[in-house]
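Researcher: Good morning. I'm working through a list of sequences from a screen, and I'd like to move beyond sequence-only analysis. For each chain I'm collecting a predicted structure so we can compare shapes side by side. This is the next one on the list. No need for commentary yet; just the structure.
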Amino acid sequence: MTLVWTWLIGTAFADTSTEDPHIWLEDIEGTEALEWVTNQNQQTIASVAQADDFKDLQGRLKDIYDSKDRIPYVSKQGDFYYNFWQDTDHPRGVWRRTSLESYQTDEPTWETILDLDALSEAENENWVWHGADCLFPAETLCMIALSRGGADADVKREFDTESKSFVEDGFFLPEAKSEISWVDTNTLLVATDFGEGSLTDSGYPKITKRWSRGTELASAETLFEGQQEDVWIGAYYDPQPEFERTIVYQGLTFYSNKMFIQGKKGLKEIEKQDSANASIWKDTLLLELRENWTVKGVTYPAGSLLAAPFSKWMRGKKKISVLFTPDESSSLARFSTTKDHVLLTILRDVKTEIEVWTPTRKAWLHKELTGVPSMGQLRITPVDGYDDNTYWLTVRDYITPNTLYIGDVETKTTTQLKKLPDFFDASNMVVNQHFATSKDGTKVPYFEVSASDMRLDGENPTLLYGYGGFEVSLLPNYSASVGTAWLSKGGVYVVANIRGGGEYGPKWHQAALKKNRHRAYEDFAAVGKDLVGRGVTKPSKLGIQGGSNGGLLMGNMYTLYPDHWGAIVCQVPLLDMKRYTKLLAGASWAGEYGDPDVPEEWDYIQTFSPYHNFDEFKTHPPMLITTSTRDDRVHPGHARKMTALLQEANKDVLYYENMEGGHGGSANNEQASFMNTLAYSFLWNTLTTEKPSTEEQQKSIDAMPE
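Model: Good morning. Structure tokens for this chain:
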């Protein structure tokens, strides 16, 4: 077959209409496709968004998102503490700063550095903030990243925080999925779209260069060029005092990479497993293992964190210290570094604790971090990783609002700085953890939030959320949206920690990779069955929600387990797993799902491709599918085509596509409040409308354990 290619926002669109009758919907900004989108949006608004209770909930959510009582999290840059803030007066947001002394007061004094609303109006652009990379140590020269409509691709422009203006004739990168790193005032490391042949199959940079001020980007010195099949190539300059160095990464797959250090004789590879994540702190190499690794006769298990003297390592001397070893119930969630310490965040059955590790001349010493709360999820980051041992600590759980502390490892002090208000009344709510048994016998944890006096009569409207991919852990989190839109109405909220995530380390993730993907879906279905079996709810009152990889999860719950659910919200999803590697960043995820162009891999991929597994003769629950036109990570064609397929079969499906927002689905608080209200209203209205259980659902109920 002859393929006719049209370039669409950095990816190719293949005219294979004889194979896929809906492929015209992949034409992201095509006239016919956008007319279809507009029609779908109008129908969905008419169906869900016209009622007074919808407008009331949207208003309450927007008030929460705009609330000045939110915690303004900051990052240290030079002598100041910077924050990006959106509210009613600043829907696109302002980049602002304050002093540490002022920040620790109830009402800090903020100095606006850049107003995105004013900039967008002046330039007639719909700019969305993507952050700032600033030159250490003063950090007054910054490369500001601005996205049109929230896409991953952005424009990067040099900005001076002292003059509060863009630098005339300064560094500038046009719209692309670029990465930059400052070396000095006149030098950047740049990985971007340099023109034909400079991107990988995944649409990310294949080349990284060293770019000098005043020269053309095309003439920049090439540091490294990867292979076409690589995922991405990048470089950064590490400005740690006394340990300055240039590091180059070669992303082989989503889960493997090579790492090089720039020396006098060129790049030298850092020896490690390709699957291991490496970072360098002072003269210490830190390695997170995804696979077992045997060194000098000693085997270190997957999930371990190893430390070794970096300079000796590069000379072939491998003196390894073990900072963390997982067991059946624990995993390393993350780590960070202060001036003198490594801080480990450890999960034990999806509950967090923090350890402090300190290198001495003879060995590493460790202790638990003292003076911190013992409840909820703990999130710790350094205040200034170079100069002191202070840290920010955020504590929260599903019904406890975020509380921000500042602490010091050395003085063992922790001081509460700020706390979110109670955006919903949780005085009669409880959080419990349960374990469901999956098809293969694996115990799968899930958190359940409900009224303390909830009756186990099967009549509770219940929302089950899941993700299950890319080693992402779903940890207890305070959501004012869930509390206001769901819990406050008497609903039950459940989060499933299924395989494919990172809750129990690499083994939990790898258990659901590629041909084993079905285990993630079996886990999620098992949690749903457990909720029904325990009397929390019944299938007709059990709604489910997920986005991105979680959208793929929702698609498979729709096609593989249609009798388990009463309603589904499927957001920014992957759904056509035959073509996903050909759409936008899809090729980068072959390490997660497999390559559909390899026949033996397509044999198993097609078993979890909702677009190909839909059976029109089954009874399916109502479903809302949402996406964004500006999502340049997961192609909106997935959502569009699935909707068209289901509508042709006269299924109960609604569709909404936000014209902005990128992969996050919204570009400002107005859009976020609408999109969230749309999801929660659809679920609540569907689940609370009395209707008889289908024959399939009744069989499912009858099969539940007593």
